[in-house]
Specification:
The structure is a homodimer. The first copy, chain A, contains 13 helices and 21 strands. Chain A is α+β, with helices and mostly antiparallel strands. Chains A and B meet through strand 1, strand 2, helix 2, strand 3 and strand 4 of A and strand 1, strand 2, helix 2, strand 3 and strand 4 of B.
Chain lengths: ~450, ~450
């Protein structure tokens, strides 16, 4: 892809309306464009990143046996009246009247709708567990949308729902998502820490937020530093193994300010391990038992012949929000260098060629390299404009392909100037370059 | 995947509320569930098919150089007032007031929004052409939604937009989509014929609908039979070649009733070639020049220093509608056999095993076969229930994997009963089965 033909409208300077670095970068490099307050269009660069995040989220849902469905954005108010949340939800719910004057709404979440689907489909404990998820646009009519896509009104989210016959099985489902989330964020090259959290308008008794550290985060967090050394390696999709994983994390104090208790914090965490900082919520999981199944009558036949309400949990990941969260975590604003994790990078390599009028040799070379990379499934973007090399490098540092190839005047026969962002450049041949990039892609 | 664990709620009988066969089958086999009038949730089986269609649509857009973006579902009324369509659009537009009392709407189409994106991003003819597309949910508040997802309110659509410097280039873009549509529908195993059409509320001077034949279709069509023998083989992405393709199709009379002229029909088409029938619209392309760019001020600098409004076209494919259209075209309702084209089938093979209590040998064999198929990237679904073979076959005929493997009592050592839907079954070994299926997958 030539940058001159791509739809990447780059601004010379940081836009003044943006306050946090993800919002600044996304506007500056043409990842998004605001269409109205808190509502954005995703331009090709932003779209590519979001789609790659979506794919990873999807794969990790599939891996724990969740099945993908797709619920509509517009819902009827009726099911929300059944659950009792229609009035409770307040002004953040976008309420709509259709041409027949029926009360509709733009779904801010889907507990009611998925419970309605479940109750009309599943009748027996034999069909349990059921883990259903979808990835869909949602709308919350924020009174003061801000920070770009981090606190916007229309956002893209994965939400999953589990249905089980009893508490024990339901916690098994909950723990599957707990593991799935740790794996998802790891593949995005984020260190997301599960923290005990309040359940808020979803309700229920058990809940974890997954938080990444970021100075611009909206959540205050209080945690034992040692939790950052943990990982989910070796955990299997079995009750005991998942239970051990939860316990391993829960041995360390780690809460958001809603659950913060100073005394407890100081008692449980030695001074040298205390960390008070800010973070961004990128996922949230809830166990709420029969809160919705009871009010909406979602029950199954049990082995003995009795019936019982199914036990449910719900599990959210902000897919569009993650684009911003990764920028908050990775963007070196001072040096204006964004290095996307290769798993979600819009391009793997940027090819920066020094173009002279009347001399197409650098561009020809760039094209040959790009087509060789393509054969190894490595995506590149070529800067084919006649700007000078240093402004091209600056631009590519913002676009954020993790690798750069620079084709200057004195190109040597087989050696290519190759650089991983943030590291020294080296002169190596194309075969070695391909090997380095492919290795990185496999790891992530 | 075991059918007992999958979320495929199958009904014993055809639901009475459905009038056309796609609606009947989709409800019966649990592809969709209505959530309110004209609004549906997509359950796993329907979702799989829709996603496969979406992928093919996407690939054929990418192939002509279109770039993917994603515009939001909720739009501000302001841009629609600029174009003059806000009042014109009538009651089918779902109008919304947000909590600040701003006039919003759920996008029924995106000419305004994409023009707004274009005008703020592209300033010079040098960056043209630009072909942008997105695949997004849209809403049209039909007064009488019916026929399931064929005439519903919330629907999934690919819409693309082209921006060019003059009419000649704009027609080149138009013709690229013309080709792309023929290829897309061919990959879906549909014979879709381009027909001269009215432009309706989109406006403009040139338009083609792509129609597939179906008795339940809402469009009356009048056509020269010989048009069905044409194809786009050998067409290249060059002006002359694309022009020839258009001419090849346009030599034959082929219109919907809006454009029908009896005298012309009878003059141009000999009696033996006349075909009057019904069809389903699956795509629609428009050329409308500067209709939106003029009213919304989207201009570019020309080579000489002057400015001119860009010339635009728009190009829609109903992605969710195609699920129904394929059923209308392929479902043998009398014999209750749905054979999905392998390019979009929810599963490639259904494995129907005769299960006896206390004897798991058939199921074990099914599992082994499924895991061998998996290695060749062939997706299967195993019926692991204890129903009898004939009711299992009936069920699988509705689910519609194009191939079936039947594991009965007297399983022979290496030979497996294998059947392509609608053909005779044969006893062959697994290697041959894999070869047959893989060949089919490559063709499509």
């Amino acid at each position: 892809m030539y940058i001159s033909k791509s739809f990447i409208p780059i601004l010379k300077n940081s836009p003044s309306e943006a306050k946090i670095k993800s919002h600044k970068l996304m506007l500056r490099v043409g990842m998004i464009k605001q269409s109205s307050a808190g509502i954005y269009s995703w331009l090709p660069l932003g779209f590519k990143v979001m789609k790659k995040i979506e794919k990873i989220v999807r794969e990790e849902q599939d891996r724990i046996g969740a099945q993908e469905i797709l619920m509509p954005t517009i819902q009827s108010s009726e099911i929300w009246k059944e659950s009792g949340r229609y009035e409770d939800y307040g002004d953040e719910m976008l309420r709509i009247k259709d041409r027949q004057d029926r009360e509709m709404l733009y779904g801010p979440t889907n507990e009611e709708l998925v419970t309605d689907i479940f109750r009309s489909s599943i009748k027996s404990y034999k069909s349990l567990p059921q883990l259903l998820y979808h990835i869909q646009w949602k709308f919350r009519d924020e009174i003061r949308p801000r920070f770009g896509i981090m606190r916007c009104r229309e956002f893209y989210m994965k939400d999953a729902y589990s249905f089980d016959v009893n508490d024990e099985e339901a916690l098994f489902s909950y723990n599957k998502f707990f593991l799935s989330y740790l794996k998802t964020f790891k593949r995005l090259d984020l260190t997301a820490i599960p923290m005990a959290a309040d359940t808020g308008p979803i309700g229920g008794s058990l809940s974890h937020e997954f938080i990444i550290l970021a100075e611009t985060g909206e959540s205050k967090i209080f945690t034992d530093k040692r939790i950052f050394d943990l990982n989910s390696d070796g955990t299997r999709l079995e009750k005991k193994s998942l239970d051990d994983l939860r316990k391993k994390y829960e041995q360390f104090y780690s809460v958001t300010d809603e659950k913060f208790n100073k005394e407890e914090f100081e008692k449980k965490v030695s001074e040298s391990n205390r960390l008070k900082t800010k973070g961004i919520e990128v996922g949230h999981i809830f166990y709420f038992g029969d809160k919705y199944s009871k009010s909406m009558g979602a029950s199954v036949d049990l082995p003995g012949g009795k019936k019982d309400f199914v036990k449910m949990g719900s599990y959210g990941i902000g897919v569009s929000r993650l684009v911003g969260a990764i920028i908050e975590a990775k963007y070196d604003e001072k040096n204006e260098i964004m290095k996307w994790p290769i798993s979600v990078a819009p391009y793997d390599v940027s090819i920066i060629a020094m173009i002279n009028k009347n001399d197409t040799s650098s561009l020809d070379r760039a094209n040959r390299i790009a087509s060789e990379l393509e054969k190894s499934d490595i995506q590149s973007i070529i800067d084919d404009t006649d700007e000078n090399i240093s402004s091209k490098i600056k631009k590519m540092n913002l676009i954020g392909a993790p690798f750069q190839i620079i084709i200057g005047k004195q190109a040597e026969a087989d050696l290519i100037e190759f650089k991983e962002l943030g590291k020294e450049s080296q002169k190596i041949n194309l075969t070695t370059i391909i090997k380095i990039i492919k290795e990185q892609k496999v790891i992530n």
